[in-house]
Amino acid sequence: MSSLLRITDLSVEFPGGVRAARGVSLEVAAGETLAVVGESGSGKSVTALSVLGLLPEEATVTGGRIEFAGVDLLRCPRRQLNELRGRAVAMVYQDPLTALNPVLTVGRQIEEGLQRHLGLRRRAATVRAAELLDLVGIPQAARRLRDYPHQFSGGMRQRVVIAMAISCDPRLIIADEPTTALDVTMQAQILDLLRRLRDDLGTSLMVISHDVGVVAGLADRVAIMYAGRVVESGTAVELIGAPKHPYGRGLLASVPRLDAPSRVRFAAIPGTPPDPTALPAGCAFAPRCGHVVDRCRDADPPLLDAAGGRLVACWRHAELALGGAG
Amino acid sequence: MTRPVESAPGLRLFRPTTPGQWAGLSIIALWVLLAVLATVLSADPLAQQTADRLQGPSLAHLFGTDQLGRDVFSRVLQGGRATLPIGVSIVLLATLVGVPLGALAGFVRGWLDEAVMRVADLLFALPALVLALAIAAALGPSVSSAVIAIAAVMWPRYARLARGQVLTLRRREFVLADRATGASPAQVLWQTVLPNAAPVVTLVAVLDLGTATLAGATLSFLGLGVQPPTPEWGAMVSTAVQTPEAWWSSLFPGLALVSFVVAVNLYGQVFDRKGLGR
Amino acid sequence: MTDLLDVRAATVAYRTRAGIVTAVNSVDLTVGRGEILALVGESGCGKSSLGRAVLRLEPLAGGEVRFAGDDLGTLRGTALRQARRRLQMVFQDPQSSLDPRRTVRQIVERPLKVHGIGSPAARREKVAETLDLVGLGSRFLDRYPAALSGGQRQRVGIARALVLDPELLVCDEPVSALDVSIQAQILQLLLDLRERLGLAMLFIAHDLAVVRHLADRVAVMYLGRIVEQGAVEEMFALPRHPYTQALLSAAPVPDVAAERARTRPLATGDLPDPLDPPSGCAFRTRCPHARPLCAALRPELVHGVACHRQDELPPFVSPLTHLGG
Asked: Hey, CA dihedral for C171, C177, C178, C179, is it positive or negative?
């Protein structure tokens, strides 16, 4: 199957020996939605930012390839990257307030992209911009083109950001924690919007989130990251229903469930995430894992095949699966 | 996620981190040492040997002699004993007056805030040096009047600085937490808020040390600070101006002054840290 | 038994450049001894302001807060300080709620020193005991907050709140800023502490799933008023106010089938401008069941629900009854 985006073995470091990404490999097929799930320090945001070359200055990509429709984004000329940005690959950020330019009207910001990437004339761009705002559910779209970002509420701003993202018919949208800054009722609306747009436009979507519930409705496939690596990946239905990696299990178990039949104890993962400058040799999750054996501490497991397209970075994944629900 | 951060609070705050800061600290230390040991290292600065007046640097007089035949080397070394403490006293006085006033104004707000800020505004509006001169002249020429005059002109700066810091800090959650535990407003201000304002205030104060020293020297230069025949770098440059051909009598005290001020500015950078007391 | 905390007609208002915002509008609530009451709502509903007003960190523009029978508003000086010992707060942001210039030891000891309790030796012991209670060992004593993880900092915040042996804790979104796997640790800690110490809690949160497993009773707030309150199990199984229904249906659940089957969200549009709230029922602009009456008359809390149409509305199928038996 041809993949639209293929990240192979990506490694990113920050000054001070911080290994934010250590050999990350991910794929998004055309028309597919991939969710990348992890907590802070997992490297998920760093991976997303690397795709469009949006890492902060002090970060260094120390290895790997990012191929988009055959082009290696890490090695292609600047101009080519700029052309792809906003056009073929668009991004939706976490904080709509900082993602929008406060001194330009919302209309101008959308029109700029249309003019630059699609070559539309001014008037045509304005018309299209109004259509886009309407598409994302902003009432009185034509009038609101003339408003500035601060005149919109948080949820509306995020809709504007989404409008900008889809404006040039991108083949891939990368959404980095798109609803984290929003209230839950607004979050539901935005997720609904993303789902609708994705279905109508057929775009591929890569959603980064720490909230498994948020991605459950959107994702076809899910990848879980921990300490800079992908530790498990598979279809959304299978992975979220029955994760196989001890961290994946622990993560899902620690989310309090609204739909649980009765009140239960909160199930925490003991310990704390590792220090990215002093990662243990061997499996990064070993210090917190309830199923650790010597082998885990000696060697860091790669992503191993666990049947049915599932990949699990755990030496013991087969035995643990047999052992039944843990 | 988090890595163990070496935290700043405590004396570690004063430790130089760059070569420039080390250089600055060394020069300051050197001058302080020389000032302390001045009487041991040099001869009587007041001894006049009119026969030897305006002699250039020689083995007998390392820095030459001035127009009254006094040894410039001795006067420079001992001049530090006048010049250095003046700068320090000025900054100390200005902060001791300005910081509490500004902190109270920022914490209590209301009429106190208005009053302090209006007075500060007034003082900012007037040209600093002129005002200092006026005050010093009114108090009569002496070291203490110079110190008071310059401090009187400098305190609004610290008041405004402290007020700004307090205004930001009082909204922080840890200050709210302090109130929640039952601390009185006084306890919250002096024990929790102010220690967190200290790094920024210290930075400014240390950098001002150079400016204050220069200001004191300027007043002495103009005859309103240290009185002759006591050696003081600024005053020495002033008298040396009358005999421009004797370059040594103005150069050495001038160099002393400049080196000290530059050293203070170099070392002062140590307090300018991102994330100080974050 | 009288309630430990009795809030009556509490009102908190802020003056902004654009006008007066009534963040909390005549709210009544009670918390009994050893009980956990959750205060739930989205941003701007006033739950944080109410929490702070209970501790007198914000002034009340109206109403009163009674603790163990005493009106906190009438207490001054020493009496107020004494009362403060029994009511403590845990803050949301572990990063900014600890004094960066104090060590863990100093932070936890501070409340004791402020109240002049015990000798230095006795205080040291109390600090060690309290840190132990929250699961932090003595090796943390001389560390600064910057050297701690989010979860560890939050434990220090809890220790600070506990060191005075309070009877009630106001927890203002204490886990919202933490990673999910750490949230569970802190939540279980709070529950264990309630068991061991008999603490009552006013737990302010926006995450309903957390509330489900933590609280005994819950009050839902919208634009400064309580719109529904009651026992957790009942309310979550059968929410009666349209806003509560919207919240419950909007809350994401980590279950693919449930999420994919999700129908349109129940609350449309945006939060109204708090400076100019809608007349009558504040939720009517987003409510699928609004009628003219809702604009004309503000509904009072009747049987724990503030909705004119509470008896007419069709029963709501909540995620709880739909799945998981």
From this structure: positive
What is the dihedral angle through the alpha carbons of A65, A222, A298, A41, rounded to the nearest 10 degrees?
Answer: 80
For chain B, the maximum distance between any two Cα atoms, rounded to a whole number of angstroms, is 76
DSSP B130-151: HHHHHHHHHH-SSHHHHHHHHH
- Most C CBs within 10 Å: which of A42, A147, A212, A259, as the mutation test of the C interface? A259
Residue in C210, C252, C258 closest to A211 by CB: C252
Nearest CA in chain C to A271: C182
Question: Which residues in chain A are classed under CATH 3.40.50.300?
Answer: 3-88+171-321
**Nearest Cα residue to B219 out of B278, B164, B154, B141:** B141
Q: If residue A224 lies in a helix (H) or strand (E), which one and from where to where?
A: strand A221-226
List chain C residues with pLDDT less than 70: 1, 264, 318-325
Q: Is the pTM of this model over 0.90?
A: no
CA nearest B73: which of B209, B249, B245, B261?
B249
C84 contact B CB<8A:
yes
Which segments of A168-233 does DSSP mark as H helices, in order? 184-201, 212-216
Task: Tell me which residue of A214, A234, A203, A205 sits closest to A313, measured CA to CA.
Answer: A234
Distances (CA, A) of C75 to B217, C82, C83, C116, C186: 57, 10, 8, 19, 33
Mean pLDDT in residue range B6-29: 77
Residue B9 has a pLDDT of: 56
State how far the alpha carbon of A70 is from the alpha carbons of A36, A76, A89, C75, in Å: 22, 11, 14, 73
pLDDT of residue C124: 94
**Helix (H, G, I), strand (E, B), or coil: what is residue A247?**
helix
Q: Strand C225-231 vs strand C5-16: parallel, antiparallel, or unpaired? A: unpaired
Alpha carbon distance A250, A247 (integer Å) = 5
Report whether B115 contacts B124 (CB < 8 A): no
Q: Give the C-alpha separation, C175 to C150, whole Å.
A: 10
- Report the CATH fold assignment for A3-88+171-321: Rossmann fold (3.40.50)
Residue C181 is predicted with a pLDDT of 87
